[in-house]
């Protein structure tokens, strides 16, 4: 009986099972999530320079300029809302931004705007929308205007404004 059982087991092992095949293919899922956002091209050391130029101490009248120099460029996912907020600068007083004479106390008031027509003021601490048509080359729209009084002491007048950009 023992040899019969061994023969029966050997027969079972040798008999192939009909219709069974090894699984050689299957599927798996691939996905990605793209988050909306922006990046600052080249990093940030300064957003640019707002330079009213060199003027005579006796000059009078309105002088305007725009943010220039090596300005920062943003790249955003198309459709991302971008906004900026500017503080009062280092020399603001009574809600007015001021340039201050280096080594002195004299001030020259100035205003900032988000358009070249000087019609959309950038108030202190107020958020402003940054419009753009090319999401790969966004520049901050900042325009400045001051009125020269004609009686300022000669010197270099400066201020530093903190810009916060959000998206």
UniProtKB/TrEMBL annotation:
Q: Which SMART domains match?
A: SCPU (SM00972)
Q: Start and end of every Spore coat protein U/FanG domain?
A: 26-164
Q: Which keywords belong to this entry? A: Signal
Where does the signal sequence lie? 1-22
- Source domain of life is Bacteria
> This protein is called what?
Spore coat U domain-containing protein
């Amino acid at each position: 009986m023992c040899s019969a059982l061994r023969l029966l087991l050997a027969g079972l092992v040798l008999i192939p099972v009909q219709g069974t095949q090894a699984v050689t293919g299957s599927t798996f899922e691939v996905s990605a999530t793209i988050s909306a956002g922006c990046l600052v091209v080249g990093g940030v050391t300064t957003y640019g320079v707002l330079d009213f130029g060199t003027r005579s101490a006796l000059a009078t009248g309105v002088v305007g300029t725009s943010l220039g120099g090596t300005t920062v460029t943003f790249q955003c996912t198309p459709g991302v809302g971008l906004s900026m907020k500017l503080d009062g600068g280092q020399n603001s007083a009574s809600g007015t931004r001021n340039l201050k004479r280096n080594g002195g106390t004299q001030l020259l008031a100035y205003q900032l705007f988000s358009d070249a027509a000087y019609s959309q003021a950038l108030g202190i601490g107020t958020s402003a929308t940054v419009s753009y048509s090319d999401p790969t080359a966004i520049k901050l729209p900042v325009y400045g205007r001051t009125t020269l009084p004609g009686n300022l002491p000669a010197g270099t007048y400066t201020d530093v404004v903190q810009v916060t950009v959000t998206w």
